[in-house]
Design goal:
With 461 residues, the protein is α/β, with parallel strands linked by helices. The chain has one domain: Glycosidases (TIM Barrel, Alpha-Beta Barrel). 39% of the residues lie in helices and 13% in strands. It is built from 15 helices and twelve strands. The strands form three sheets. An eight-stranded parallel beta barrel has the order 1-2-3-4-5-7-9-10, surrounded by five helices. A two-stranded parallel sheet has the order 6-8. Helix 7 runs parallel beside helix 9 (198-217), helix 8 (174-183) packs antiparallel against helix 9 (198-217) and helix 14 (386-404) runs parallel beside helix 15 (447-460). It is globular. The structure holds beta-D-glucopyranose. Beta-D-glucopyranose (BGC) binds at residues 26, 29, 172-173, 176, 227, 302, 368, 415, 422, 431.
Length: 461
């Protein structure tokens, strides 16, 4: 394929030698082949009427399970150095513990072998939200036991793949999983517990710590990936500033402070006014924070957009309100999802992490960044997606600036290689560099695919 795409001639952003270039996907969003593994909470959630916008499921998705050789060939064409994918816990352990599904292990073996043969580093995430249904039935992330099971699962996969996989990501976006899955109920497992979801944060972090111990004992590098957002108050009023701090605490600090500093942030904005306690206090045990402190060798950061915060209205259940970005900045472009496109937010985020954590901040990998836009192949098979090219270009420039400002960033993974199952939005949001026709599974690289290929080549000089 030889299509070449014009890009704004502002000079190429520069990246350090050895910088890793990747794409990311997740098991439930791309694999399909659900009948060849144990059930996950997303299988069940998709069956609930009205939960997925287009009524779809992950049953076939992109059929990556069968078509990964074709997908790896496209990664080769991109010139990638790494592929971030996730292992479906119920594919290797159908119940989450006990009996092993060797067919599932074999699949990841073949995928990892294909990547290694192509000179692409496999970077697996152990958990991208597809909890085995059996573990959910036993309490899911509200139960401490799930964290212990996760440590056993980590041991199984590191024993099997550790000879070829040096770098591992334990969890994907524990904030989003807690908030959407357990607080608001818009993702699996569909629980709407509001602040009673806070124990989910601790049990996920503990699971990470258990896995980190196993992985490090085997000599591996360990990351945890969170969705991070720079939070700004909409004005300088003290209530607004306090609301922004409360949101920042919940979204960012709740997950990063224990990992990097060994302590939870001040959660008083979320405490019961009578007892001064939060539901998190019920589940923390002696030794937990010591196990968390310093348990990452590098931090995975997923960045999509910044957040504006305002003071809550009287009687609101949460200590913040999240006004619509475009009400305040109507000129900001939006993605197909309606998310504001703010590349400078990535620079602001990274420099604020540097300032907040200082020497406690380990090297960073941007483990997801991307955008959804509709777009179909034209009569010549061309998928023109100039908005995605502009999005990627802007974010790579912001990233290069953050690196120039001293943030130690080691890699960038575009989300996503393929259009895929976008959770509650089903197949209605297309994030891929490659268009997927879900009726035929035909893959058509978009113009952004060729742009990214050329950007990687330029960055490598
Ligand atoms: C998730 C992906 C998701 C993407 C776009 C991230 O929150 O890790 O699974 O597809 O954002 O919504």
């Amino acid at each position: 394929m030889s299509l070449s795409v014009e890009y704004p001639d502002q000079g190429s952003p520069s990246f350090p030698p050895g910088f890793q270039w990747g794409v990311a996907t997740a098991s439930f969003q791309v694999e399909g082949a659900t009948q060849e593994r144990g059930a996950s909470i997303w299988d069940s959630f998709c069956r609930l009427p009205g939960r997925i916008l287009d009524g779809s499921s992950g049953q076939v998705a992109c059929d990556h399970y069968h078509r990964f050789p074709e997908d790896v060939a496209m990664m080769v064409e991109l010139g990638l150095s790494a592929y971030r994918f996730s292992i479906a816990w119920p594919r290797v352990l159908p119940l989450g513990y006990g009996r092993v599904n060797t067919v599932g292990l074999d699949f990841y073996d073949r995928l990892i072998d294909a990547l290694c043969a192509a000179g692409i580093q496999p970077v697996p995430t152990l958990y991208h939200w597809d909890l085995p249904q059996a573990l959910s039935d036993a309490g899911g992330w509200l139960s401490r036991d799930t964290a212990e099971r996760f440590g056993d699962y980590a041991r199984l996969v590191v024993d099997r793949f550790g000879d070829r996989v040096p770098r591992w990501i334990t969890l994907n976006e524990p904030f989003v999983h807690m908030a959407f899955g357990y607080a608001f109920g818009v993702h699996a497992p569909g629980q709407a517990l509001m602040l009673d979801a806070l124990p989910v944060a601790h049990h996920q972090l503990l699971a990470h710590a258990r896995a980190s111990e196993v992985l490090r004992a085997a000599g591996h590098e360990v990351l945890l990936t969170n969705n991070c957002t720079p939070v700004s108050p909409v004005d300088d009023a003290p209530d607004t500033v306090a609301a922004a701090a409360a949101y920042d605490t919940l979204h960012n600090r709740l997950f990063l402070d224990p990992l990097l500093l060994g302590e939870y942030p001040d959660l008083s904005a979320y405490a019961d006014p009578e007892t001064g306690r939060t539901p998190l206090d019920r589940v923390i045990r002696d030794g937990d924070l010591a196990a968390l402190r310093g348990s990452v060798d590098a931090l995975g950061v997923n960045y999509y957009n910044p957040t504006l915060a305002a003071a809550p209205a009287p009687g609101d259940a949460l200590p913040f309100a999240l006004p619509d970005y475009t009400e305040l900045f109507p000129e900001t472009p939006l993605t197909g999802f309606g998310w504001p496109v703010v590349p400078d937010g990535l620079h602001a985020l990274l420099t604020s992490l540097r300032d907040r954590y200082g020497p406690a901040l380990p090297p960073v990998h941007i483990t997801e960044n991307g955008c959804s836009y509709p777009g179909e192949p034209d009569a010549n098979g061309v998928v023109a997606d100039p908005d995605r090219v502009a999005y990627l270009d802007g974010h790579l420039r912001a990233l290069a600036e953050a690196i120039a400002d001293g943030v130690d960033v080691r890699g960038y993974y575009a989300w996503s290689l393929l259009d895929n199952f976008e959770w509650a939005q089903g197949y209605t949001q297309r994030f891929g560099l490659v268009h997927v026709d879900f009726a035929t599974q035909a893959r058509t690289p978009k113009e952004s695919f060729f742009w990214y290929r050329d950007a990687i080549a330029r960055a490598r000089g």
